[in-house]
Amino acid sequence: MNTENGPEKKFRAGCVSATVWSNKVKKNGSEIEMKSVSIERSYKDKNDQWKSTNTFGASDIPKALLVLSKAYEYLASGSNETNNDTDE
């Protein structure tokens, strides 16, 4: 498990990815770990530079569902793997 505030795991399906984040926060005087998931689509702009967006086309939705499902499965299993990309 990543002990710093940063990405813990990333799931990819083509140009769509979901990243699991692990953050330590103080709550009621105790430090607890909070997990969250971000989702994005990568693309190349007109200058051939890689960019990312949180806007998805109709053909991206099945990929988004897949990576979100994998992220949920990872979180629900309580997995504490190190940061590894999983290409699906």
Task: Name some characteristics of this structure.
5-stranded mixed beta sheet, 1 helix, 88 residues, alpha+beta
Q: How large is the count of helical segments?
A: 1
Query: Poorly predicted ranges (pLDDT <50, ≥5 residues)?
Result: 82-88
Distance between the termini: 22 Å
Kindly give the count of domains: 1
Could you estimate the helical fraction of the residues in percent? Answer: 10-25%
Reading the helices and strands in chain order gives EEEEHE
Q: β content, as a range?
A: over 45%
The radius of gyration is 15 Å
Biggest sheet, strands in spatial order? 4-3-2-1-5
Profile the largest sheet: 5 strands, mixed
Number of strands: 5
Structural class of the helices, strands and pairings? Answer: alpha+beta
Backbone shape: elongated
The overall pLDDT average reads 87
What does this protein look like?
The protein has one domain. Helices cover 18% and strands 48% of the residues. It contains one helix and five strands. It has one helix at residues 61-76; strands at residues 6-13, 16-27, 30-44, 50-53, 85-87. It has a five-stranded mixed β-sheet with strand order 4-3-2-1-5, covered by helices on one side. β3 and β4 form a beta hairpin. The model is unreliable at 82-88 (pLDDT under 50).
